[in-house]
## 1
Amino acid sequence: MKLAIIGVGLIGGSVALKLRAAGVVEQVFGVDANTEHLEAAARNGIIDKYGSLQHALEETDLILLAIPVDATTKLLPQVLDLVQEHQIVMDVGSTKAGIAASVKNHPNRAQYVAFHPMWGTENSGPDSATADSFAGRSAVICDATDSSSHALETAEFVAQALGMNVLHMDAASHDIHAAYISHISHITSYALANTVLEKEREEDRIFQLASSGFSSTVRLAKSHPEMWVPIFRENKENVLDVLNEHISQLRKFKSALEKENWELLEELIRSANRIRGILK
Amino acid sequence: MKLAIIGVGLIGGSVALKLRAAGVVEQVFGVDANTEHLEAAARNGIIDKYGSLQHALEETDLILLAIPVDATTKLLPQVLDLVQEHQIVMDVGSTKAGIAASVKNHPNRAQYVAFHPMWGTENSGPDSATADSFAGRSAVICDATDSSSHALETAEFVAQALGMNVLHMDAASHDIHAAYISHISHITSYALANTVLEKEREEDRIFQLASSGFSSTVRLAKSHPEMWVPIFRENKENVLDVLNEHISQLRKFKSALEKENWELLEELIRSANRIRGILK
């Protein structure tokens, strides 16, 4: 199979590395607005060649869009305009409803599979790509009934090659669950970083005193706005809903402290401890 | 040197393992209200023997209190009542002002060093102890002028054997910095866990969809209330101060989303990204 990666960053690069290592693709064609990324990806063995989207579409079987979700919403209909009958298109976006809507009535909709591999880091660019990141994690396929069986088989084959477990959801449900489990933790981490940077004016102290716990909690705050503003924008209602809940949960801690209600504080902590039973 | 560990949990156990591995102590005496912990610690080679506090004080040179901060505040004056002239006492508590106040005018105050090694995990108990956890992290010594030079030399020798970098602060400053950099991240993590458990009623989905990012952000929410309620209680004012700032930072994200002010959202994220320059 010949693969085109549209956006040779962390996710696109990691998918390409793994599919090549698994012997699933024999050639990878890179497309990216950033020439430095293309050159780095070629150097790192992520892609064999690069060029325009049109050129990529002439040479490849599977086209993977790994660009910010707003860019995907714009580009996906254009890619579907151009695909030949045998070609399959997938994206890896962290929101799905807007992307799904952008091609809802496209004549080639069946050649597209909405795909979300649940892995990422705070880093970006092809230099951060690694082959074995996806193994054991979930990949969500959305609105499977809108895709052809050939397209679905290809997506499942890709997921299997990445070592991922496939889950099926409709795009709207995906976006709700993603807000609860992924998007909110980015907001809490960004806000924590801003809190500490606001309060701790001696920046040296942050470096000196940061334990592994603080580093872990604030890690996602390093994630770039180019990826995350479009996600929050696409998933605004769901993110606001869970953000309101989160502020209300923090207010309970505040109230327990203000009222010196140590029984309530202990209860809130014991409730949070239930996460240990879910994430071992 | 003969070491007594009062509280053979994660921290006490890890200190004992490392000091023994470094050849600094030749015998470790364990004291703990929990007999199962003592037996586990003996099995794991953390302690050689165990018994009462009185017994420990007859046989050892260095007494390390590694129990919750409220228990330290109660026990430390009693330990200082009993120490012989050559003995040194240290604690590892995450708050320092209350503990320092509890022995401020004690006749043996100079034999005590207020010590805070900046490491921990969400786990507890001697089975979680590991020898090489502390290396490269900071250890804070508070109110050094209240300790004798012999006591300080012992504490610095211990820090060196643990591979830690020593910082000096007064107890009040320590508690402010600890609230900013360590205590608040526990509250945000607990509140995030409660948020997700409240919104995501399909618990299977949390397990299935949890990316490494979510797991990392919510990891501290597994930490036990036995340790953390006393910390928040001791450091109430500083924690409330930073918690208020944190809620106000989250409200900025909320406002940016509600008003669809994507420039502000990007600005908030770019501000948070500055943490990358501090924590590589």
## 2
Amino acid sequence: MKWSEIGGTPCSVARALSVVGDRWVLLVLREAFMGVRRFEDFRSRTGMSRRVLAERLTALVEEGVFERRAYSDRPERFEYRLTAKGRDLYPVLVALLNWGDHWMADEEGPAVELVHDPCGATVHPVQTCPRCGQAIDPRAMTPVLKRDLRAT
Amino acid sequence: MKWSEIGGTPCSVARALSVVGDRWVLLVLREAFMGVRRFEDFRSRTGMSRRVLAERLTALVEEGVFERRAYSDRPERFEYRLTAKGRDLYPVLVALLNWGDHWMADEEGPAVELVHDPCGATVHPVQTCPRCGQAIDPRAMTPVLKRDLRAT
């Protein structure tokens, strides 16, 4: 199967990956969640080439993850703001950050820490069950298949 | 910057992406969390080519995400089991699933549902603060930069 066909499968993971299953996209999102909005800032902070960055930003605007807004008329300049759909990707980035901090750390410790403003704590957010509040253990989760994941 | 250099940056997100920032890898992990362990099952369920699948599995074994274990001597056959490091990627997959269910669903509803065994509820796990227990809102999180993310 080609990747272009995967987005057509009924699996939500595969559909999500058709938009964000790309390391450059996820690096751009990391910067967006750090407050970056402008092309040149994305470029200098990620080290991406202009071509690759422009391509990814265009695709993310088409998918509704970013909204492209003019912030200057002369010269015409645009910024890229996360939409609600884009902000909802935050848990994906946090999950990657947590995993990297835990399994790929070096002796200098994390490069970025997250402070939860309402309580002031520096935290690694955890996934919990919205019904009972317990922390999620993958071995205590049963995936129930409703449809064949390959069918279109 | 080339992607091969990104894994050397101090950012945990980038380091995580150097291992799992690839849609095929994430699709393989999806299957592993559904209980798949054998090459032929990964292949038939994802539609990946043998070459791409073999390459990804080898890399994931090298990274310590899977452990490769013989389950048959004649013929010699191996299975791929998630290690603790691999199981810790579950929140990444769940976050992608949640996002796909919410933003890329079709009228037939989710193809996979998750049941939290201890309480029996079908759920979309949520990220919460381990200190105060509140659900995480990205706008209530402040990233604190400890080091330049580009430095090596």
